[in-house]
Design a protein that fits this description.
heterodimer; A: alpha+beta; five-stranded antiparallel sheet; globular; B: alpha/beta; six-stranded mixed sheet; 6 strands; 21% strand; disordered N terminus
């Protein structure tokens, strides 16, 4: 069975975060990927929060796609990733999002939008465990 | 539940009454949310109840959207000395913005009291551990 990826656009506003989580949770349900649901909802929230806070994007596009026994969530915006990757120990109370996001997924990648080439994409992949469901 | 319940009313904030919460829900999620109600997904809003003099209950989802309201509600409590207890049994979601709330509270108390977190669910507990809050002197305790 082929399950096509579903993508949806959201406004880059904090109040969209709850709806983004509902969208992702619905897709996880559709793909029967309930294992690690909470981890993925956290990761997608952190990725989207970064886009909202730092990128100056006009919209955030979130897609959820099965990838074999794994699930990939992509968060893409049309903004500029103009902050260095923060270090929680140096930056104090803030900037923990990247650390949390990376901690709860199996694979995490970031393509940074620049001023010359806007558009930041974060890929988050989580795979089923042997006994996963 | 402890009978003492107070609303924290700050300029620009909607009081946390059930009625206000309903309005806030509508304002936050817009028209699409009701029809996409998924029983597997926790509620989409956040509120705080002060259940005792130095105890606050965090309810719902604490993220970037609820950060400002949370800090505004906690500010008057942080002005007074004493340990502060967070009851987390009804906190369904916490991210780095929520961690930031707790760390800011600890900094605001600045030795005038400690912060204790109680009854967090399994995933919130996991996030608190990854964030290393225990290393910052923020204790977590299960139901006694």
């Amino acid at each position: 069975m082929i399950d096509p990826a579903v993508a949806r656009s959201f406004p880059p506003e904090p109040r969209a975060l709850a709806e983004i989580r509902r969208f992702v949770a619905g897709e996880l349900e559709r793909h029967s990927f309930r294992t690690f649901r909470d981890d993925l909802l956290l990761a997608v929230t952190e990725a989207c929060s970064n886009a909202i806070r730092h990128s100056g994007a006009k919209e955030i596009r979130v897609s959820v796609a099965p990838l074999g026994t794994c699930l990939e969530i992509t968060v893409a915006d049309d903004g500029v990733y103009d902050t260095r990757i923060p270090n929680p120990e140096l930056d104090g109370e803030g900037h923990r999002g990247m650390h949390l996001m990376a901690s709860v997924v199996d694979t995490f990648s970031l393509q940074q939008g620049t001023r010359a080439r806007p558009g930041t994409t974060v890929n988050l992949v989580k795979c089923r465990s042997e006994a996963g469901s | 539940m402890h009978p003492v319940m107070m609303s924290f009313i700050s300029p620009g904030l909607i009081p946390w009454s059930p009625e206000a919460q309903t309005r806030e829900t509508a304002a936050v999620v817009g028209g699409a949310a009701g029809s996409r109600d998924n029983p597997g997904v926790p509620g989409e809003t956040f509120r705080i109840e002060r259940t005792a003099d130095r105890t606050v209950k965090l309810i719902g989802e604490l993220d970037l959207a609820s950060f400002d309201a949370a800090m505004a509600a906690l500010e008057p409590i942080l002005a007074d000395d004493g340990d502060l207890e967070f009851e987390l049994s009804d906190l369904s979601f916490l991210d780095s913005s929520g961690i930031r709330v707790l760390v800011k509270c600890r900094a605001a108390l600045d030795g005038r009291g400690t912060i204790v977190l109680r009854d967090a669910n399994a995933h919130v507990t996991k996030i608190l551990e990854i964030a290393g809050l225990a290393d910052l002197g923020i204790r977590s305790e299960d139901a006694g």
